[in-house]
Design brief:
The chain is of the alpha+beta class. The chain contains 6 helices and 13 strands. The chain has one domain: Immunoglobulins (Immunoglobulin-like, Sandwich). The strands form 3 sheets. Strands 1, 2, 7, 8, 10, 12 and 13 form a 7-stranded mixed sheet that branches. It has a 4-stranded antiparallel sheet with strand order 3-5-6-9, with no helix packed on it. The longest helix has 24 residues. The N and C termini lie far apart (about 65 Å).
């Protein structure tokens, strides 16, 4: 009986240990009650009662920018064009996944190996692309103002205008158990080789901040015809006045 009791205690210890590890490793994403979303220069209204729903969506780790806007303002989502909607399906990056990428993300240059597998009749029409996305954050030396951004660009061929190109930047503040989403800015375009989503945030509370970037390119004439990448900056301490 004593031996059996020890085995039961071991099982409980293992289960309890796993629960502790799970709790520690799972970072919670909060959403600021003052969240602002700006898409192509237009601010999307976010009511206080929608904050909880957006927070739940972000913690599912499967949210797109379109999903977030749909919760915040379904009517605004309907006003976007087909081209804008294509790019708003970018997965929204969160700091919980950030260790997998850096502030610069590059695509692969698809050349001989990929093209040789495609019907020879279409080879002449294929344009190999080398793409890059970058997120950035800088703090003014005169005031506690963060300028945050994410950009997507075509490296090769130089200045080649792709059919659809988009970039999104999320500004996060570090919390005790994860991070808090404060701002989202998105920029989309057609037949451009470069696009940047950028905005500014006045820091009212000292702490560590970072930018998570999302990048997407769609062009049926090219290889890859679809590319999506994620980037992020390091946590940086910013002091409020």
């Amino acid at each position: 009986m004593k031996l059996w009791g020890k085995e039961i205690l071991k099982v409980f210890a293992i289960i309890f240990g796993v629960l502790i590890l799970s709790t520690v490793s799972a970072e919670h994403i909060k959403v600021s009650p003052d969240l602002k979303i700006i898409v192509n220069g237009k601010e999307i209204p976010v009511s206080k009662e929608k904050i909880g729903k957006i927070e739940k969506l972000l913690n599912s780790k499967n949210a797109t920018l379109g999903d977030i806007i749909k919760i915040a303002s379904p009517e605004c989502l309907k006003s976007f064009s087909y081209d804008e909607m294509l790019l708003l399906q970018m997965k929204f990056p969160v700091p919980d996944d950030i260790d997998k990428c850096s502030n610069i993300v590059k695509g692969k240059m698809y050349l001989d190996n990929r093209i040789s597998s495609i019907n020879k009749k279409t080879i002449d029409g294929i344009i190999p692309l080398l793409l890059m996305g970058q997120s950035d954050m800088s703090v003014s030396s005169y005031a506690p103002i963060i300028e945050y951004s994410a950009d997507t660009r075509v490296l090769l061929p130089p200045y080649f205008p792709v059919q659809h190109i988009g970039a999104g930047a999320g500004l996060f503040k570090k919390t005790n158990d994860g991070s808090e989403l404060i701002r989202i800015v998105v920029k989309t375009g057609t037949y451009k080789s470069y696009i940047e989503a950028s905005s500014k945030y006045y820091v009212s509370e000292s702490g560590y901040y970072r930018v998570c970037g999302e990048h997407r390119v769609i062009d049926e004439r090219c290889v890859p015809s679809y590319w999506e990448g994620h980037s992020q900056t390091e946590w940086e301490y910013v002091k409020a006045n």
